[in-house]
Amino acid sequence: MNNQKTGRTRKQRGTIAQPERFGDSRHDPYRSRQKLPEPTVCPECGAAFESGRWMWPSVSAAAGPEVNRTLCPACQRIKDGMPAGIVDLLGSFAKARSEEIRNLVRNVEGAEKKDRPLERVMDIETTGNGLQITTTGIHIARRIGEAVSGAFSGVLQIKYGDGEHTVRVRWQRDE
Ligand SMILES: [Zn+2]
User: Fold this and answer.
1) Cystine design at 40: which of 68, 84, 131, 136 (Cβ 3.0–4.6 Å)?
2) Closest CA to 141 of 12, 9, 20, 16
3) Are residues 51 and 125 in the same domain?
4) Number of Cα atoms under 13 Å in the Cβ half of residue 62
């Protein structure tokens, strides 16, 4: 492991930066940073921390000015530009059918985040080789890869990072 200089981190497309400042890679720094009082509500997306997990709020959690407010891990990742998952969809097929693939990705996201507020798509970008999707959670990244390969076959690879709180998904199909 090489230590980068402190201070600004270089922004590199396509890499999952491991935030060294949190040290211990066994814990997801975005999920175990602090103990939260309950209920805590995210001022950005409205998700609530209840019964030890983030979920879409019950009426009781959302109500009342006295609830604790802090960014949920997904909104914090979006704010920091630190995706948990990167999905590369590569090859001529991805380029030719990008609209269809984008729709599929959005459908997967809709189904995932209904029950899991921390599983969201951050961005879908067109790259020289196809599409790159960044996500706030690892589960949705895997689901996107599986959905795309399920619908269009091709070759799927899934690699987890340290502590399994980051994932890199790669799918390729050439006509
Ligand atoms: Zn949020």
Assistant:
1) 68
2) 16
3) no
4) 9
Q: How far is the CA of 82 from the centre of ligand 1 (A)?
A: 14
8 Å CB contact between 41 and 67: yes
Distance from the alpha carbon of residue 55 to the mean position of ligand 1, in angstroms = 10
Render pLDDT for 73-111 as a digit per residue (tens, 0 to 9): 999 999 999 999 999 999 999 999 999 999 999 999 999
103 and 144 co-located in one domain: yes
Distance 23 CA to ligand 1 centre (A): 24
**Residue 114 Cα to ligand 1 middle (Å):** 14
Residues 100, 122 share a domain:
yes
pLDDT tens-digit readout, 3-17: 444 444 444 445 455
Report if pTM > 0.85.
no
CA of 143 to the centre of ligand 1 (A): 21
